[in-house]
Structure formats: C-alpha cells, structure tokens
C-alpha cells in the first residue's frame, strides 16, 4: 500500500541549497520540513570534493567538502527536519508526487516544494565528442565518487578537459589517487578559474596548460590511450597520450522534475525561471541552488537556499508576496545566462543582492549595461573581471531604474 | 574429453537463438565466443527494430525468415518480458523521386506477404508525426513495424539454453578447426573442444571461420553505423519509427523511439576494413546532425545522452548465406545483417531443418525449462522501482542506484548473479540500463563498479 509523506515543505535534493533551506525553515518557523535525498547520504557534491575551499561565505570558515557536507546535515537534523535518504522522487506532474525508497513507494503531500536538485557536468556524449568508448572516460563527479566515496583507483596519466574551478578540483582528486594530470585542455585563451587559483594550481600540480584547444576525439580500444586535440585558431591537431580523461564543468541543471511538472524554464540556465524570491511559475513551487545557477560554489548555493527559505516562510504564513507581472531579464552575448530572469520594483533583491551570470569570453574590465526598450537604464563598470567557467555577479541595483510596464531588460557587457 | 553433438561458434543473437533451439533437443550443445558476454559484438549495437520484412527482397531466404522471425520473436518477447512496443513506422518522402517510389514499396511489401502498408498524404504524415520537420511530401505507413530491446533477446536465449544444459563457453577465442572423419576439433584460447557438428554464427568473423572449412565463398565487410541517442525528455516528439525512403541519392537515416524511452537517430553507413572500429567519428556526427535537423528540428534542443557505433556484417551477396555441408558436419550462418535480430528464431528453426537433412536426430528433450522471465527494462512497462510488492518483499528493489534510469540495487545484484551473469559495466548496462542514462555515470558509475567488485569477491 502506498503511504503518504505529509509536510508543509518538501525539499527535493539534500545538497547545500536544500539542507540550508531546510535548516532555515525548521529553526525559524514551525513548518514541518521533509528533505528527499536520493543518495545514500545527504550533503550533495561536497561529500566527495575532499579538499579545502568550502564554507567560506556561509559558515565563515575554510573547511573541506566532506566536513562541510556533514555539518550541513548535522545542523538540519538538529533543527528537526525529516531527512529521508535513498528516497527518490520518480514522478511529479506538478501535483501528484511519488517517491521510491527501500521502505516502498510513497506519495508526497506538501504545501510548498523547493526544488534543489543541483546540476551535473555534461558527459562526453552530450558534448558530442566522437571516438572510441574505452574505460577511463570520466566526469569530475564520477571521478570523485570513485576516489573519495569508494576508494577506487583511476589511471596513471590524465588529461583534464575544462579550465573551470571544478577542473582544479579534478586535478587535486587525481593527484590524491596517484594519477598525474598531464594536461589541462581549455578552449579559452586562459583557464577560466580565478587567477590566484590558476597560479596556485600550476605551481602545485604543474599540468601542461593547453589553451585555445578543443578535444576532437577520444582514442583507445579497451582503455583510454589518448585524446586528440585541435588548436581552434589554426586547426592544427595533436594527440595527448593518457589513460584517463576527465570532462569537467559544462554544467547542466538537473531540471527533469521541473520539466515533468510543466514549470517554465529559463532558456539561458535551462533551470526553472525564477524571480528574486525563488518562485517558479507554479504556485507554491520554489527553486534554489545550482539548479537555478549552474553552477556557483557550494556556499553561494547554500545562501541561495536560505534566501528562498525565507520566501517560503512568508508563503506559508499567507503573507502577501508580490503578485505582479514581472519584466524578463535577458542576457546578451557574451552572457550565456543571467538569473533571476524576472524583475519588478516590488520584489526584494535576490540572494546576496546579486544577479548571477555566466559569460562565454573573458572580459577584464566589465562594463555592464542594462537597457530597456532601447533606453539605457544603467551603466556600471565592475571592479572584478568576467571570466568563463565561474559565476560573474552583478549588483541587483543595476536594474533599479527599469520600468515595470516596459519590455524585457537586456544586460550586456 | 566429452564430445559435443553441436558446437555453435558465436554467441550473438543468432548463435544464442540456435543454441536455445538445439538445447530443447536431446543433444549436447556448446556455445563458444571470444567475448566475456553474450551479444557483445554486432548484436549489441543496432537499430533495435522488429522488422515486418516489408522491404526485403521478395523471394529471398531473408524475406522468409524475417517474416517468420517477426512472429516467433514477438511471441517469445511476450513470454519472457523482452521489451517490445508495436509502434508502427512511417516512411517519409522528401523528394518527388522518393514519393514516386512509395507505391512500388507497397507492392513489394505485398510480395513479401505484408499487405498492411498504406500510402499517406503529407497531411496524414504530419498528423501521425507532428514534430516532423517541414517539407515532407507524403509517406507510407507500416503499422506493424515495432521497436524492441536489442540486448535482452540474446541474454534470454542464452539463459534458456544454459538452463537446458548447454555449455556456454565465453572468453574462448576460436583459433582453428580440424575436421576429422567423425569429430571436429575446435581449438580455442580456452582449450580444445571436440564436436560432431560446427555451426558458424561468428558474425563479423564468419568469413574467416568459413575458410577453416576450405571455403572462400564470401567476405565480410564491416559496415559501420553510427547512432545518436537523445534524452528521454525528447520522447514526446515521436511515438513511431520514421524510416527513410530508399532512393538513388543513397539511404537516409531513421529516427525512432527506443524501448528505454529515448529517441534514436541514425545510422550512418560506412564500409570499413577494421572489424573492431566501433568508434564514432566527426564525419558521422556531422552527417547525423544535418539529417536530424531536417527530420526533426526540435531534437537537437535536447541533450545527446549517448552515441555509439555498430558494425554490420555486410557481405557481397544479396541474401542470407545459410548452408549445410553434411560431409564436414558444418553449417554456415553468414551474411546476417541488421535484420538478424528479427529473424533470429526463424534462423534457428531453419538451421534445425538443415541439421535434420544432414542426418542429425532432433528428438525433443524430455524435460525442458520454461522460457525465462527476463528483467523488465522497458520504459513503458512496470519497472521494479515502481512495484510496491517487489520492494515489500525485498527492499533492494527500492534502493535506486542509477537515478537517470531508475535502476535498483536489487536489479544490479540479479544481473550479477543470474544464469548468464554480467561481468562488467557493459553487461550491467545491457541487463539493467544502469549507467546508460543522461548523466552517463556521473552519479552512479562508482556505485555500480562497487557492486560488480563485491559480487566478484563473493564468487571468488
């Protein structure tokens, strides 16, 4: 017989955003909160990112991924949430939600839903990279699962594809697994992560940086024997020998549940289209974390979860939330996405007062222009560079002069 | 050393089907393959269609066996739980030439004994296929063309054969054959085998093996077909197989739903020399992209879940090449191209006839097992994770390991401990779908490997 899980708030996904939202709601309101986590343990991606760099913005400390994940779980459980691991939402049409767990099938009956399903790296087929299909082709997620959670082995010589923050995370994990990173291949002119990180990473691990290149083929019959790369500017090709290749970054949100519920997606992020309160276009359904900004660091995802939890708390008490027809916020090239994708002067600012964006090319001195109906609303030069491979943040206040009855707001650099 | 009555070389869909049929006779049967799993060669990478045979060359053995095999495998699928969906197909004409070819195709179908094709106007084509790209001029319906799981049949056949006492000798690479007066010795990497009859179902290697018997009658050319598999979120675009119309401009590609809930586009057709070249290529992807964007423009808005290439055993011969040599106690089953999945059980029946003519007594075995119940891996059927009864009896069926494909720990355990067990990740994926989904093992790869290692240790 199918049982029913009844809660005021059902949070789907027990990573940094979902757990922080749960803790916020359970500790500050009387709401019953259930977190549905499909993995064996909650904590999300940080569980298997066994290196320092976590908890800076939200916990004001500098800790490892697994410790950070454990702390988020402990805090949520201490706040009294109902944490259900190995519990996967297998269908949801927007009203009827079904889960499977070792205890059976259950229906979920909740007043509000927070989608916090995160993002995954595009695997090699989705990048449409041809060649053979040997063992040793990984994503960072699979690599870190193998090394940190299952203590398995990888190869001896790796090529890491991508130059994002996560790419260095892969390099660190490879080192720990006794696998040397021979090369880091990025299509950009320089690695996309922070300059300090690049310098530090290069000094520590000395991978050969292959910039301005793309991978055109994976080679090897049973085990990876190499990757063929092409210099984008010249078309010149060469083979980098390796026994492991890690495809890093190139994130895609885990948006399948959102789509099955008919929630409108943001064409840029491919996650749910949200307003600054974290509301989707479906009443009572909110979204937070890397599902809406694929991807930012775990601490930013966590703070986003906390921010959205406050909106949910207001929603539960029946407090008036602005019910207005919002203005779309659209990114022009080189922005590949911007979020929140909706503006209205009645909305409070989004988490941390920032618009999160992603750019396709490096801009050292970014001058952000917001236009509406051909009119410049604001123009602001920001003191930090815009770099592919990590989130570029813009103060929400650049939209302050927008007309709530006007057309879409276009952001450009 | 025991002497087998029959040794079948090649444990693809054809070899396993023959082994299944002969295991139901009072015969000792060996099934030999160099691979570590059944169905691990050309059989694992095809277009997964159960063909009516409407477009076969009339009068050929292939035409007859495809038509018969369609019925046999359809019944067997129902008995064993091989995922099969009777979706129907539409051939879509994009040029005047193609449109002009449709009535002839309908006539040909009738010659092949299939009379349910109907000519469709462009409006009818779009009514059946609303997501089709613009420019279709007309079509021909083939209402009984179906989609099927390409992996489960080989495993089901082999399971039934082994349960009836056949010896499944995997990782036995055949290195030579010596035909004696009463017995044949098959030299393999795993030792010599003695057998009275040899059946050559070696697929891509059938020509090489045939030469061991003194023949030089055909050459297998590996013809590579590359395919793209799109995310399940694309599945609402299409519920029928869209087939190309053959024309002078060459063969087009098909776009089809799969029984796993994806959409598949392909194949390319490229003749190669290397019988192991199952790699995909830049040219192949480019070709599929250009074809796919015309066929179904929305398809490329979704992610590509996986890409693969299969090698068809193309031969310089217009038909199946199935022939018995009673003097050498040898049967060649060669030239079985992509239709072999459909015709597999009919081929087995045909081979039985040849053996009987060759003097082999085919007495029904007194005790045979019932057809096995295969794990349900079809998306539109009830899967273990959806079954309250199964989970209540064994919570492992509620423990989802592969999130994208909703594969449970119970199913993975079963695949590793079944009659014809999986031995690696590929074997797990063909029995359960684990790691085949959109994340391509981002979440579950390490957990699946751990399951394989645990069961491997326990069995050691």
Automatic annotation (TrEMBL), chain A:
Annotated keywords: Oxidoreductase
GO molecular function: oxidoreductase activity
Keyword check for Plastid: no
Superkingdom as given in the UniProt entry: Bacteria
Limits of the FAD/NAD(P)-binding domain: 8-302
Name of the protein in question: FAD-dependent oxidoreductase
Annotated source species: Aeromicrobium phragmitis
TrEMBL record, chain B:
Family annotation (CDD domains): GlpA-like_Fer2_BFD-like
Domain BFD-like [2Fe-2S]-binding: 400-453
Lineage top rank: taxon: Bacteria
FAD dependent oxidoreductase domain mapped to chain residues: 5-351
PANTHER family (alphabetical): GLYCEROL 3-PHOSPHATE OXIDASE, GLYCEROL-3-PHOSPHATE DEHYDROGENASE
Name recorded for this polypeptide: FAD/NAD(P)-binding oxidoreductase
Organism: Aeromicrobium phragmitis
